[in-house]
Amino acid sequence: MLMSWLTETVCALQEKGDDLALVTVLSKSGSAPCLAGAKMTVCADGTSNGTVGGGVLEAAAQKRAVRVFKSGCAEILSFDLSGADAASMQMICGGNVKLLVDFIPASAANIELFRRLRDALQVGEKCYLITSLGVAGGENQQTKRTLVLEDRSLSGEFPYPHDWLERLVEKASRSTYPVVETIDGQQFVVERCYIPSTLYIYGAGHVSQQLALLAETVDFQTVILDDREEFANRDRFPKADVITVLDSFEECFKGLVLDGDSYVVIVTRGHQHDKTVLAQALRTGAGYIGMMGSHRKRDELLKVLQQEGFSKEALERVHCPIGLDIKAATTAEIAVSIVAELIQTRAQAIT
What we know:
Blueprint: H1 4-15, E1 20-29, E2 39-43, E3 48-50, H2 55-71, E4 75-80, H3 84-89, E5 96-104, H4 108-122, E6 127-135, E7 144-148, E8 154-156, H5 162-172, E9 179-183, E10 186-193, E11 197-202, H6 206-217, E12 220-226, E13 242-245, E14 262-266, H7 271-281, E15 288-291, H8 295-307, H9 312-315, E16 318-319, H10 331-349
């Protein structure tokens, strides 16, 4: 789950001594107006941050939060938005939604846990949040939370066998959404906590503009790199996370550390610039390298790079022509095809 805003919000509230209810979309199907993993905090005075779909669905969650504040126990709510629930809630979108409404008191243990989670996210550390719900199908209980850090150190309590911990982490490591798992009658919600993958877009032309806007909506951090300030600027890329004006495309990866969560898209203004960037990208640990161009351009360029010493296996990393084949024609359609391939690659990386 994407938790940067959440940890900042929770830490700020709890450090003031405020208890809160945390609403999480555990699952959704059909055309329900929310995403699995979406979150909303609710304070005792009714104020909220975040969203789990808006409208009366969100209102129902806020109403249940009032009850959770009184009981101190978590509750799971299920809504059928194609049946009776839809009629009573005046929603016609269809689908099913399951929400967890959890109570998080402003205790020293919770403050420490969410601080450690915030710190881990800030440095890109992979971690997992485990919420123990007690006996599956039993009465509502106070939850226990455990943060599992990358080195397998823990924050919070986990009074269960160690092999359960590894089983839960392994299960969540393959999902971008909350996982509900039952072990020996005990029910848990496990979430992989992460910061968005980073998309490095080399070239700041028209396709890049569309690509950056679309990538941001599906949780990629976007970095724009070009050697032309009149193209690489905030007016053209208002939502980009980082805009870098290069002296040239030579050494355009200098100072960057790329890993499996790094995605490189090469859409410069010319073949020679593409080659310059691609040769450098192949020396990084990027999880995805894509380049705009025809099959002919790809074959010619890869042949030259092979002659320069790149192995066949290295060159097979290159996605070119870039994007899924959806017969894209306009710049917007090309951007859609590229982002679709990025989403596909990201999903395959965690399965």
